[in-house]
Specification:
The structure is a homotetramer of 290-residue chains.
Chain A (H helix, E strand, L loop, with lengths): L5 E9 L4 H11 L4 E9 L8 E9 L7 H14 L3 E6 L6 E5 L4 H11 L10 E3 L5 H6 L4 E3 L7 H14 L4 E4 L8 H6 L4 E5 L11 H8 L3 E8 L9 E8 L6 H24 L3 E4 L2 E4 L2
Parallel strand pairs in A: 5-6, 5-8, 6-7, 8-9
Antiparallel strand pairs in A: 1-3, 1-4, 2-3, 9-10, 10-11, 12-13
Helix pairs in contact in A: 3-8
Chain lengths: 290, 290, 290, 290
């Protein structure tokens, strides 16, 4: 955790000799003070080729130029290394739109973290298919939009959600137990920027009522999974997971209760990794530079 | 978790032959339907004598009499077995007074659980030595009392706290990161009914700034402890503990952040055990019938 | 843990009023000293009927008769309550046959526990489809049988395994990473007495190469599962599970290595529960009285 | 995990701009292929000055020279950066001397890992103050030395241990539940190369009988700590720790049993980090590049 303003480079490129030297050499040349840096070489054992991942935090005022110029100066090197890259600025807070349904545990948890500045973000609005959490959200000074979703109105409802997100200039979407199957359009609209919390230890118990499935199977631990949303239900790249022990005395409703504690923690951790540009997507997997 | 009304017997007595038979025989005689029952014999290896602990849930309407009569009828047997005992009624919700300071994470967490009825309790009031959380508490319809505490006014301040608790007919007190050292009078006033959450894995790092202590010692896990308050600081019977992994990259402020997640979970679990009469104090230790 | 000789009743029966009173009353009547007792009512929410489970340890010399007479005297009550029941004697050590392949981690772990008497069992023999661990096993004074298994000889090989187990009067079989798919006959021969350790957190990653499957899916935790063997591969009742955290830096071989630590611990815990008659099978699930 | 031969640089130096660029630039200049690299800046919040830590694995045959020349060529840069540094070769297996007493769980565990090549080390000898594990060790083809220790012979006994270690050219010492308080001379002889496993979650329960201490305090988790030995008992830099849950039903002997599982796992993990040059000592703390 760094209090001073910093820039974060998150990037990947084909593996080759000298990548770190080239990239850190660029910063060193300009007296850039590196606060944190992590590198990872994926040897390509599950794909055809090796790929290199990196994340570097540089103190903003150690550089003799501003963000725009940094990006401009870095671009030629990035091009040479055939990089996918982005540089973010700790001074620009991300704009996170939260989607909820009726369950409040993740929402309370996220707003407590936002309130205490643990999550240093803007929440331009909360969107829900129910109106029940309006008062709580509005008390925090956050706009609340009620967009009902019925089988017949799905398409228009999700178009409205998308319109609201865009109007609010949301750059990250969090499905905080939104409990709805999104339209393919909405799934596709924010690639790598829409996070879901699924209430099972994926890939076990995909789909509806995972705690009931877990109860039937008699597992001894239950879990939760934070992942990016893709067009395939519960199949997106996994960012974070955790589990909690249960036993034969626990009924489904006990599992639901235990599960909530895991869900909110896993979602908060996954979201933090995302917000700090610690997550790089690689195919259907993630590199998470904790 | 049982939806129907039930009575809970929590008791301990000197160990001898036939205790379970006598106690469950009493319920069987009256057609009492036992929903859950747990027994534990402490062999006295750390004290002089063996002691027997039990907790029994009986469906209320399976018995042919009401709570008062149940207590009256059970009393002779309890006397014969030299029991410490209590019988509570799931229909009488406990009255939990929460004490907070300026940190909101435990308060948000407890109110979310109360709001969703996960914690089926009354919160007659919240008391704080700061005024900052008043709005949030009052929005929930819960009275908020600001009782400033200064070195000079400690005695009168804690007398006022005690007056407020008693006026609110609070039966359980939760120090949800209250961060104040109580007066001996207040410590003594609610024995076995005042829970604290300490931000370390006790007995490590007693007292102030435990995360700083943990940082200095270079531990690889940090923790939190929910315990009953006694007159000795951080020495009361431990109800629940948990830990989370950290590493050399974590500064004290990261540990504080991770710690909050453990604190609120451990407090919520410890409080639940207490509220469900699952905790029996034995000397300076607890039997927790999970 | 009790040093003195004791009998263990493990039983289940249809739920009704007064079961505990009847059963513990039986022991009390004979001055039986109950060391440990646990009860569990399954409300039948996932089946049609409620069922009651119990496990009771009674000090052997507190009873005025021997095991055979205990069983005989208990039988009428068991019949009346329509019980499935067994009573074991802590003085009769269970006879555990271990089946291994080439990986040694579970075998070393089990023999260390046996050597130190942590597992107070007889190991009448070890059976393997390879000869490589013979020396290690025989050094411990345990007979070792090499029974090669090829696709063509499966039936006769497993018949030979069964012959060896029966000749050794084995009552429990442990597949300690045996890595072979058994014949239906062998699966059926020791119901509720053959334990397997599967190297994934079931139901995820059934079948072959679970660590490769886990790597492909990009999960953030891997696990192991100890379960009873049934005719369906990796589908038997789960006794114990655990997980360990991995991240993007871990290749499949790292996962294999981490996995071994979980496998041996989970197997040892599951086996201990089984040996102490703490596991009661209920349909395809288990009640584990820890 | 890398199968090909590689060199590992483990180093620390005062923090300044451009360290990574300089060091990785050195390797890039010689076409060195970096397999793994980790960096950490300690901001000096608990000491007076910032310090920079790094660990870099370079594929051996990507460099145009051998280890000796690598060290020679790297030396000027190291000098310029005022580095503490070492470069090891994955082809030179470390020589680990194991010290044990009578408990076998850690020894079995380490030898299983050595046998399977999970730990790719030499074990030139095992030293014990008892003779009971001789047969097991010698069966593995490892020399065993029995060096009795009595209050009167401590000094000469530890001198003999030191003589045996040096004669065996041991570079790392592992106290695998050796259970003896070493002489100050022995403690000082192998700084940063002698690992102990303590059977508590330090700093709780320093010294003798930690499980008894834990039982008395009524903690809900017990742990183990792998640390470097220094002259102060149980106060050396912590490398790894872990915990396991217990409850009121666990007697001291149960805690001992659970504890063993944690002890061997924590020791094995700590030892692996040490062997792979992942541990850098910083004052009384460690940086562990996992």
């Amino acid at each position: 955790m760094h209090r001073e303003r910093f820039y974060t480079l998150a990037a990947s490129c084909p593996d080759r000799t000298g990548i770190i030297a080239r990239v850190t050499g660029f910063f060193a040349e300009h007296q850039g003070w590196i606060l944190e840096s992590t590198f990872h070489a994926d040897d390509g054992s599950d794909t055809s080729d090796g790929r290199y991942f990196m994340r570097i935090e540089v103190k903003a005022d150690s550089l003799p130029f501003q963000l725009a110029e940094l990006r401009q100066r870095f671009a030629p090197l990035a091009r040479e290394l055939a990089m996918d890259w982005r540089i973010s600025d700790s001074a620009s807070r991300k704009r996170v739109v939260i989607l909820v349904s009726q369950q409040e545990h993740c929402l309370y948890d996220l707003l407590a973290r936002w309130q205490s500045k643990e999550l240093d973000i803007e929440i331009p609005c909360v969107i829900s298919n129910h109106d029940s959490l309006r008062g709580f959200v509005e008390w925090h000074g956050i706009p609340f939009h009620h967009v009902p979703v019925t089988p017949d109105t799905k398409t228009s409802a999700y178009a409205e959600v998308q319109r609201l997100v865009d109007a609010a200039r949301g750059d990250t979407l969090v499905l905080a137990r939104y409990m709805q199957i999104l339209s393919p359009e909405l799934c596709a609209a924010y690639p790598g920027r829409m996070l879901n919390i699924h209430h099972s230890f994926l890939p076990s118990f995909v789909g509806a009522k995972p705690y009931h499935q877990a109860y039937q199977r008699g597992v001894k631990l239950i879990g939760a999974t934070c992942h990016y949303v893709t067009h395939e239900l519960d199949q997106g790249p996994i960012i974070e997971q955790d589990v909690i022990r249960i036993d034969h005395t626990d009924a489904v409703e006990d599992m639901v209760r235990y599960g909530k504690d895991i869900e909110k923690t896993v979602l908060a951790r996954g979201l933090r990794y995302h917000l700090e540009d610690r997550v790089l997507v690689h195919g259907n997997k993630t590199v998470v530079f904790r």
